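Input/output pair, single chain:
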Amino acid sequence: MRHDSGTDFSDWLQGRPADARHSSRPVLMVTWSIQEGFGGMTAMCLKRAGLFHERGIPSAVVTFDANPDLATIRTKLLESGRLHPDVPLLNLHDFYAEHSPARPQGQAPRRARGSEWVESARTLRSRDGSLFYVDYRLPGHEAAAVREYHRSDGTIYLIDSTLPGDGDAAADSRTLELVAPDGNVIATLDNPGKLYRRFLTDLVDLAHADVVVDSKYSAGFLWSWKHPEAVKVVNFHSTHVAAGQDPMTGKLSTAHQKIIQNRDAWDGITFLTESQRTAFVQRFGETSNTFVISNPVDGPRTLPAFEDRKPHSVIHVGRFTKGKNIGELLEIVKKVATAGTPIHLDLVGDGDQRPVLEAKVHQLGVEDLVTFHGHVNDVGQRLHHARVLLLCSKFEGQSLAILEAQAHGCVPVAYDVDFGPRDVIENRRNGFLVPFGEQETAAQAVTSLLADDSLCEAMSTQGFNDSVHFRSDVIFEKWMEALDTARANRAGRDALTAANVRIAGIKFHPDGDMDLEVYVEIGEANLSGLCLQSKQRGIPDGDGVEIQPHHGDDSVFHFRLPADLRAQQPAGDALDLNLVLGIGSMTRTIRLGASPSMQTTPYFTVYGNLSLK
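Output:
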């Protein structure tokens, strides 16, 4: 692929691993932005890109935001080792400022800015002080705005205009114009999402890559993006429900809603833990595009000597947030000390709850038992010397702290909350799982590990041995398997995703049975499986009752529902009916409904009479 000057710029798109796997496609790791002080999701996106590169898969990190400090951030990431030196950090604005895909429309940009517009601000790039963008406003029109993005040589590469529409705010129009160095328009787009999707298409066209999306925000505009060559995978870094909500019935996480609503649009959806994936499919139905791939955690190759551990050392690693429930952890430490077992707690991390926690330390009178360390760069060494990791979180996605602790032989004691701890800790074998809020039980577990050397050493060894399942080599192979599976399943999945299903009719029999007629349109694909599934709402366990069609014709299949179906599933709420379609080894579960154009809904009164709503 060529830059507009005719030179090859494929190395700009992706690094070249020394031992490249020629049979595998490159992979683009997509997030929205990389800011100073980023969190675990961005850290894992960067780490995965390096992990792929080191194992022969060309990789790059992709961002979309307009950040004048991106070059400085890139330099800091390289200096700190958080970005692999051979993994490019690709940004939409860098791309269109430096490269011009040869698809010009051939006309000059629409000049929205006349003499009545006034300059309101200008922003410079931190790397060289060159002009990045200029903002203009239109007096008397609050929503009207124009931003012109400039190359380092001063030419414009993007104009983002919101123009007033005849005094009606609802008629305001937004236009984004990509501009070539010669001033001709490359493309005109009417919303930012189209620009972001075009950028990703341009990258995939050039790099022939697959795509892994980490950012929930980016997934919100990329669910509809599709490329004929690229496999598209989205990562769930946290649960599908709002914090503290029930996974089966709780309010959906706002950030995840578009992913969930359009879950069939992804070639793959990855979850960090099996319990997280199970909760998702129990609520939304089993599909063939879900995978469990943990974050990679690498500890020492040999178990640190138990004699190196401080006899009374307990550690907590994580951000100081309300969800981490560290105040309760302090109360547990006091219980252990009050019962006569020497203990010292090291708090590693920081956050907005630190002043509250410092006040609670004084309130409990445990100043001599607790040390605040803030952010440190030697977490591994601290886990190497600690006996116990103590976590009292109210909820978890996947606890990297637990994985890192076991990888260093530090024994975890954690509240058994959704979703991470129970996927890693086998109670009383490689750690302790404690029912949420049972401080006395947690204190007893910590006491036993501090007081019983043989118990603590045995659990330390077991946890360390189990941690090999989360090492980078293992996780990388899981990624390769998931991408290969997603690609192999793509044609069948596309057919399942396009399936049109609806209730076509209902017939009542004198014996109380009911015939349900279901219309199924699947295109040219051949179904390998079809059944009706009756499942109790809000009940996660069990597969419900499956009913096979007794005959079908002209795309309408008939299912006989027995009169005692409700009695067969006596507990729980209403019975939900789903159609399960199969093509080969793949399945899709579809909630049954009537035609969207239906204006009335039939129902039966308490006396068995038919009425309409």
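The chain has a mean pLDDT of 89. Residues 472-488 form the longest helix (17 residues).
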